[in-house]
UniProtKB/TrEMBL annotation:
Superkingdom field: Bacteria
Residues of the Enoyl reductase (ER) domain: 11-322
Keyword Ligase: no
GO molecular function, one term: quinone reductase (NADPH) activity
Native source species: Achromobacter pulmonis
InterPro entries listed in its UniProt record: ADH-like_C, ADH-like_N, ER, GroES-like_sf, NAD(P)-bd_dom_sf, QOR-like, Quin_OxRdtase/zeta-crystal_CS
Alphabetical list of SMART domains matching this protein: PKS_ER
Protein name as annotated: Quinone oxidoreductase
Keywords: NADP, Oxidoreductase
Length: 327
């Protein structure tokens, strides 16, 4: 027996209940994993609230965690007991002390990356790696626009683009987030609720526009982001925090020969080889000093409800991690 956070219905944070569960022995292709740290993401909150109806109930939420291999199935060749690993999965089940999980979903953790760092940032790091190295390969001298520049993915994008020699323009929603965006590497920060970010981008770039705009906000910023693009510029819409982008004519891309993508990180890491290569690149950027992962706020796993309440309080400025002790 072990324990986990179980959802039996959707609703507010109080539907996240601490309960005993049984964990099956790992199958031939699986490992038994003892979790040490579990990431808390907005995806988890959408599942809990019922906005995303992707977890069969009763079920254990959570898509991101780090831990130690306890046992390995007979067909597992890449991992052995004692190995430190992390994962991101759409199969859920991370809000638990222990679980059996397919070995193909795991990435090895290098010595210089802590379990807390991995659990709090792997999904964000894989997303950032996809955006700056694959969706649009940022080059020295590029102008780059990053919306939500003080957010989890946004700070990584700003740091990585700056490290690659780009000129980074970030947008934030409040005054207290300006220093965070500047610390993450932005050359200029625009408060998009108080300023016309399109006009400011034109001013900052001398009307040249940006080579790439990374937009996780969606409906409220999408068409403005398109206006900010330079000729042959690319718009990567990787989130919809303000709502879905309305339908539009593809011919809007024609005047400046612009391009558009709606990338999915899970397609980016759809095979074990792709997953481990992307993770290796992300962890290398951390170890080389290109990325500085901010300290997370830790809560015990059994207090997942409290973590969700904090997640939905927009004043929070740090990532949240559920610490797993003594399992």
């Amino acid at each position: 027996m072990t324990s986990a956070i179980v959802m039996r219905t959707t609703g507010g944070p109080d539907v996240l209940q601490w309960e005993p569960i049984e964990v099956a022995e790992p199958q031939a292709h699986e490992v038994l994993l003892r979790h040490t740290a579990v990431g808390v993401n907005y995806h988890d909150a959408y599942v809990r609230s019922g906005l995303y109806k992707t977890l069969a109930l009763p079920g254990i939420p959570g898509i991101e965690a780090a831990g130690v291999v306890v046992a390995a199935g007979r067909d597992v060749r890449d991992f052995k007991p004692g190995d430190r690993v992390a994962y991101v999965t759409r199969q859920y089940g991370a809000y638990s002390e222990r679980r059996a999980i397919a070995a193909d979903l795991l990435v090895p953790l290098p010595d210089g990356v802590s379990d807390i760092t991995a659990a709090s940032s792997l999904l964000k790091g894989l997303t950032a790696q996809m955006l700056v190295q694959r969706v649009y390969a940022v080059q020295e001298g590029d102008w780059v626009l990053v919306h939500a520049a003080a957010g989890g993915v946004g700070t990584l994008l700003c740091q990585w683009a700056r490290h690659l020699g780009a000129n980074v323009i970030g947008t934030v929603g409040s005054a207290e987030k300006v220093p965070l965006a500047l610390a993450a590497g932005c050359h200029s920060v625009v408060r998009y609720r108080d300023e016309d970010f399109v006009a400011r981008v034109r001013e900052i770039t001398g009307n040249a526009g940006v080579q790439v705009a990374y937009d996780a906000v969606g409906k409220d910023t999408f068409f403005g982001s398109m206006e900010c693009l330079a000729p042959f510029g690319h718009l990567a819409n990787y989130g919809q925090a303000s709502g879905a982008v309305p339908a539009f004519e593809v011919s809007m891309l024609f005047p400046k020969s612009n391009s558009l993508s709606r990338p999915s990180v899970f397609q980016h890491v759809r095979t074990p080889a792709l997953l481990r290569d992307a993770a290796r690149r992300y962890f290398a950027a951390c170890q080389e000093g290109a990325l500085d992962i901010p300290e997370s706020q830790e809560l015990p796993l059994r207090d997942a409800a409290g973590a969700h309440a904090m997640l939905e309080d927009r004043s929070r400025l740090r990532s949240l991690v559920l610490r797993v002790d003594g399992n």
